[in-house]
């Protein structure tokens, strides 16, 4: 029950166990007495002898003072560990995080931008500087015991130092709309050699370079495109991408446009510029700066393959 | 001038829509409020069962993600604003407060019926803004309406806040009425320290209603100014700060939590002494702790923002302040349990509910500790642990007390007894179903399952499945319980004026009471809880 994923997480769990024990004690103490009284003094008849006790000053003082002392202790140990949970070391490795409906985007100092999953080195303190492009999200890694909202108005941060190589869940924990429950990801904690390999190549060991179509499909899923744009013609929040290329669309305001590479790029970067009639404005976040030109070209290549023939 | 009961006419007469809808009688208003809030309790409860049914298995069963989000939004909004906030004060409070202090009615009977009409208007506005104009998507923001999602995703946030604002007026009218009534309308001899504890709890929650509710109006004003005049308050695009909305929302909604629970605590404090045949233990400690909770409730809203990006110092201070609520709450629990000591405990259904309340409420209170603690809350925040925690306070606490109170006072309200066996079966079904629903939620919340998820990872399936099974039992229990109560209204055995030998004033008048409550203004010579051997 004690997480060994980070050193601070283990200490958070010790606080939690301390509180759980205290909860268990008071729960059992109160209810044991309650049930005992219920049964011991059960009514036997209308003439039961009952006491006339109206209270006890002594007891009132005792059961006021003891809880006060206990909650101070809980507050104190909790605040102490929390201080370490919230204070990143000066030399932490920093990663920029952007959240938008319904995907995570991570930007590393060697220039790589990756969606969906986060890659971090093992044994190194990592600080995430987070901001949202649209609504409030929240970055949560249960095993690390860290969570912080990601808001559009300012930067927030979390930090952790993962002790072991492994894979951990990322959840969005602030409700952000339709696919909130699919705004997931993984933290990949990489040992030093793997980390270096990943930084140099962008690939995990044994992972092959994806073809443009495969890379485009992966992006289409991990950036959350699929949540609103179906590949089977179903109308979701946005238009389906089935048979998209060369399709003639009527835009809001009556203008007609034939979908080509430039229209798709424009829609990815500035989604509100050319809205297809009948679809709501302001639903899709801009991916300008979130995707490299190569990413966008991969997505376009993938979209060209989605046809009903 | 005869004071014989020959002229006795129960308040339930005359019947007819006009005679009820235009009444100014507090008892009739209490009953109409009861029917209205139970209607929304039914709707909101069915939405909850829809949510749980969808979560039996991962992936989509019968509603898509948007549909799921709409269901929990409807559930939360209707439960909070239309059911549990008016809850006990507007129903049992309206019915009992004047009876308990020996008054003919509340201080402002016309404001009282106005409160009910305003409530109906507010309820209609809320429901219609949740549904929206024909053809538009139903509101899916959750009951917290956090900006910017609520503003970006729909136009519903202003109308729904308007609805909450109108409902707020209903709350304020009731709250003001109760405060003035308690100050000015007490019968001769009914001093502050002779008043029933239910009255003390109504007084405390009325203070919160009157002081916290205006913040809804301010929030509404800011939302409208932002929309109409483009002044940035909450919208980051205009230079505003969405966290300000969270602060304003919880500055109202956290004290509201105590509007919900304080009267429930009052109900329990009424049932315990009667069924233990003993004076309440620590009367003044219980009475003053209600006021203490009301006071502290205004200074703890920040614990909803522990991971919001709020400054670290604010988090530290709000954690400390939040722990302060634990103290008066603990004092109450200890005193309730102390009341049973050396008593003569009759475990009839109202008493089962009262004791069940204490049991469930200890879980509710104690699970608040790791949520008030900074280090542990970071992990538990916005997970199912929180969902389970507040359902233990709201359903395990407030609803259990409301249902217990309805059983206790049903013979007074309708002059009829329900079937005691079915009432007991109903209690145990509720008790088992409720715990089966929410204990698994504590477990999966601790394991990291976030709330408001339409779909979930396979590792959480066992707990979700158990919780969903429990919820069906939980839901079934209410049909049993309310079926029994409704049956009693028509077919139940006639109840005596005072079937429990209570000393409280509401039992010293016929069941159901006459329109004027008492034939003569009662004179009070002793406190309400003079049970015990001397009086026996």
From TrEMBL, chain A:
Catalytic activity: 4 Fe(II)-[cytochrome c] + O2 + 8 H(+)(in) = 4 Fe(III)-[cytochrome c] + 2 H2O + 4 H(+)(out)
Entries under Pfam families matching the protein: COX2 (PF00116), COX2_TM (PF02790), Cytochrom_C (PF00034)
Domain Cytochrome oxidase subunit II copper A binding: 90-201
Top-rank taxon, per record: Bacteria
Annotated cofactor note: Binds a copper A center.
Entry keywords, A to Z: Copper, Electron transport, Heme, Iron, Membrane, Metal-binding, Respiratory chain, Translocase, Transmembrane, Transmembrane helix, Transport
Bilayer-crossing regions: 17-39, 60-79
Cofactors: Cu cation
Keyword Transport: yes
Annotated ranges, domain Cytochrome c: 211-307
Cellular location(s): Cell membrane; Membrane
GO cellular component terms attached to this protein's record: plasma membrane
Cytochrome oxidase subunit II transmembrane region profile domain boundaries: 1-89
A GO molecular-function descriptor: heme binding
E.C. number(s) listed in UniProt: 7.1.1.9
GO biological process, alphabetically ordered: ATP synthesis coupled electron transport
EC top class named in words: translocase
Keyword Transmembrane: yes
Membrane topology term: Multi-pass membrane protein
Gene3D superfamilies: 1.10.287.90, Cupredoxins - blue copper proteins, Cytochrome c-like domain
Role played: Subunits I and II form the functional core of the enzyme complex. Electrons originating in cytochrome c are transferred via heme a and Cu(A) to the binuclear center formed by heme a3 and Cu(B).
UniProt record similarity statement: Belongs to the cytochrome c oxidase subunit 2 family.
Protein name, as recorded: Cytochrome c oxidase subunit 2
Protein species of origin: Sulfidibacter corallicola
From TrEMBL, chain B:
Coiled-coil blocks: none
Compartments in which it is found: Membrane
GO CC terms in record: membrane
Residue ranges of domain Cytochrome oxidase subunit I profile in the record: 14-525
Residues passing through the membrane, by range: 31-51, 71-99, 111-131, 157-180, 200-225, 256-276, 285-304, 316-338, 350-372, 392-410, 422-443, 463-490
Main location: membrane
Entry-linked InterPro entries: Cyt_c_oxase-like_su1_dom, Cyt_c_oxase-like_su1_sf, Cyt_C_Oxase_1, Cyt_c_Oxase_su1_BS
Superkingdom, taxonomy of origin: Bacteria
GO MF: cytochrome-c oxidase activity; heme binding
Any one biological process term the GO annotation gives: aerobic respiration
Membrane-topology annotation of the record: Multi-pass membrane protein
Gene3D superfamilies on file: Cytochrome c oxidase-like, subunit I domain (1.20.210.10)
Keywords for this protein: Electron transport, Heme, Iron, Membrane, Metal-binding, Respiratory chain, Transmembrane, Transmembrane helix, Transport
Keyword Iron among record annotations: yes
One Pfam family from the record: COX1
Family: Belongs to the heme-copper respiratory oxidase family.
Protein known as: Cbb3-type cytochrome c oxidase subunit I
Organism: Sulfidibacter corallicola
